[in-house]
């Protein structure tokens, strides 16, 4: 009986979630209930589709209140291109609860994107409930300044199935998430082309992987070349773009002006 009483707020939260399926209060009820299981600093709902800029549906701050999307304008303007969850959504990923560690590059937390954008906006760690629907992936992002422990991830895994089922039913009761109104997405290659640096295909691929936070060893494995060749590509693209390192490359290509 004591255990049931301790879980009473969660059961009450579940009742609110299911009562709000198909209504405007659904996302707030869902985030508030998940917060009873695991402390959160923020939450964001987005629709990610290959070739399209992600559509940000709703953003919650640490108090569970909906905030304006203006603070995420940089994300829609191009930062999404380095978002590991956007990348795997476009490449194809199974429905489920996914951790940042499972989808990000090996040195993502040392990347300029993580240090100057991801950490201030999302926090130190992120989990996402991801659901494939009609050619797109709907992601419920859960962000926090501190890392999610294995125990906390386990709690969310225990509720994963009903969370995904509730989201799916909620979306089914709303107008279809068609691509209409979503801006066509660019890519890092097109951003690099702006500088007329005449980068080779290999140099562009190296730049993309550097910006995503891959180490030279990981880049070599992805491209099927030696680490020494990666160093040559890195040196050449830095020279052509007149930058001195990863930080300047990030600022040149993606940092808002």
Notes on the protein architecture:
The protein is of the alpha+beta class. The chain has 2 domains: 2-172, Beta-Lactamase; 188-253, Orthogonal Bundle (Arc Repressor Mutant, subunit A), CATH 1.10.10. Helix content is 50%, strand content 14%. The protein is built from 13 helices and 6 strands. It has helices at residues 2-6, 8-20, 26-37, 73-77, 84-91, 100-103, 112-121, 150-172, 188-193, 201-212, 216-223, 227-241, 246-253, and strands spanning 42-48, 55-60, 66-67, 96-99, 125-133, 136-144. A 6-stranded antiparallel β-sheet has the order 3-2-1-6-5-4. The N and C termini lie far apart (59 Å). The mean pLDDT is 88.
Structural features:
257 residues, alpha+beta, Beta-Lactamase, Arc Repressor Mutant, subunit A, 2 domains, six-stranded antiparallel sheet, 50% helix, 14% strand
SSE order and pairing:
Blueprint: H1 2-6, H2 8-20, H3 26-37, E1 42-48, E2 55-60, E3 66-67, H4 73-77, H5 84-91, E4 96-99, H6 100-103, H7 112-121, E5 125-133, E6 136-144, H8 150-172, H9 188-193, H10 201-212, H11 216-223, H12 227-241, H13 246-253
Antiparallel strand pairs: 1-2, 1-6, 2-3, 4-5, 5-6
Helix pairs in contact: 2-3, 3-8, 10-12, 11-12
Helix count equals: 13
What separation lies between the terminal Cα atoms? 59 Å
Stretches where pLDDT falls below 50 for ≥5 residues?
Answer: none
Fold-level CATH name of the largest domain: Beta-Lactamase
Q: Which structural class matches the secondary elements? A: alpha+beta
> What's the CATH first level of the largest domain?
Alpha Beta
Order of helices and strands: HHHEEEHHEHHEEHHHHHH
Helical fraction equals: 40-55%
Number of domains: 2
Please state the overall shape, judged from the principal axes of the Cα atoms: elongated
Q: Which strand-content bin applies to the residues?
A: 5-15%
Q: Strand tally, please?
A: 6
What is the alpha-carbon Rg in Å? 20 Å
The CATH homologous superfamily of the largest domain is named Transcription factor LuxR-like, autoinducer-binding domain
């Amino acid at each position: 009986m004591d255990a049931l009483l301790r879980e009473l707020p969660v059961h009450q939260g579940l009742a609110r979630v299911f009562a709000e399926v198909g209504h405007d209060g659904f996302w707030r009820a869902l985030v508030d209930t998940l917060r009873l299981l695991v402390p959160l600093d923020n939450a964001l709902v987005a629709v990610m589709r290959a070739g399209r800029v992600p559509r940000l549906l709703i953003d919650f701050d640490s108090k569970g209140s909906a905030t304006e999307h203006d603070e995420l304008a940089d994300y829609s303007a191009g930062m999404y291109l380095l978002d590991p969850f956007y990348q795997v959504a476009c490449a194809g990923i199974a429905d489920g609860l996914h951790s940042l560690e499972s989808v990000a590059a090996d040195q993502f937390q040392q990347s300029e994107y993580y240090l100057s954008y991801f950490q201030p906006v999302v926090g130190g760690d992120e989990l996402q409930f991801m659901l494939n629907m009609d050619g797109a992936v709907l992601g419920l992002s859960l962000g926090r300044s501190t890392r999610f422990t294995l125990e906390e991830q386990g709690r969310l895994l225990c509720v994963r199935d009903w969370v995904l089922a509730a989201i799916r039913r909620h979306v089914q009761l709303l107008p279809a998430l068609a691509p209409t109104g979503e801006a066509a997405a660019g890519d890092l290659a097109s951003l690099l082309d702006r500088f007329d640096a005449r980068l080779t295909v290999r140099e562009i691929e190296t730049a993309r992987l550097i910006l995503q936070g891959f180490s030279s060893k990981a880049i070599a494995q992805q491209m099927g070349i030696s680490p020494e060749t990666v160093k040559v590509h890195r040196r050449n693209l830095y020279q052509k773009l007149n930058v001195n390192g990863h930080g300047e490359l990030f600022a040149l290509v993606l940092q808002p002006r």
